[in-house]
Amino acid sequence: MKKSRVYVLSLLALSLMLAAGLVWKGVLAQGGLGNDPVLLRYSIRAFEIPHAVDVPKVDKPVRAVFSILNFPKNPNYIAPGLQVVARIVDLYRVAGVERREVHLVVVFHASGTPGALNNAAYSKHLGSAAIPVKGNPNIPLIKELQKDGVKMVVCGQAMHVFHYHRRDILPGIKEVYSGLTYIIHKRNEGYAYFPL
């Protein structure tokens, strides 16, 4: 009798674990309903606020464009604007908004243009005797944001001014005619604008 009870309890526990795994897999497939552990390395945790009067909803897609303008004086530090974007990704995830409903675009332009550079170009253009640079510290965060569906572009005008080449730009970042005109077009498409 005891063996059959243990067997039944074991089957029940196994069934619950499988069910929890399937639910979690479904949550991840929808974009996740929790803080992304990788993004938490760059941002602070988002909390559920169930009684908030403005919890993000999915009645229409979320659209925002971010200017990366305030670049750190020390190029060995991550651009704070990218950390803000990571926080926004997590805020929507924790609120239960599906990834496919969140359309975020990062624009590297003006003083923020170097954020789009690969390691070799970043070190070459930003390194000095006073501040040695060993690659672009923004790359890991950029890759994570791209995995989360954040699109990224770089200003062609700034690239020309700073003498950057297309081969200097990270994979997945597209060159646009200009950051300013791109932002105007996105604003006309209903994107909120955040200079960071």
End-to-end Cα distance, whole Å, is: 67 Å
Q: How much helical structure, as a percent, in the residues?
A: 25-40%
The CATH architecture of the largest domain comes to: 3-Layer(aba) Sandwich
Order of helices and strands: HEHEHHEHEHE
Biggest sheet, strands in spatial order?
Answer: 4-3-2-1-5
Average pLDDT works out at 85
Global outline: globular
Give the number of domains.
2
The proportion of residues in beta strands is: 5-15%
H/I helix tally: 6
Q: Find the CATH topology of the largest domain.
A: Hypothetical Protein Ychn, Chain: A
The biggest sheet amounts to:
5 strands, parallel
Mind telling me the CATH class of the largest domain? Alpha Beta
Describe this structure in words.
By secondary structure, the protein is an alpha/beta fold. It folds into two domains: 1-30; 39-195, DsrEFH-like (Hypothetical Protein Ychn, Chain: A). Helix content is 39%, strand content 14%. The chain has helices at 2-29, 80-94, 119-126, 139-147, 156-162, 179-188; strands at 62-68, 102-108, 151-155, 173-176, 192-195. The longest helix has 28 residues, at 2-29. It starts with a helix and ends with a strand. The relative contact order is 0.16. Mean pLDDT is 85; it is low at 6-32.
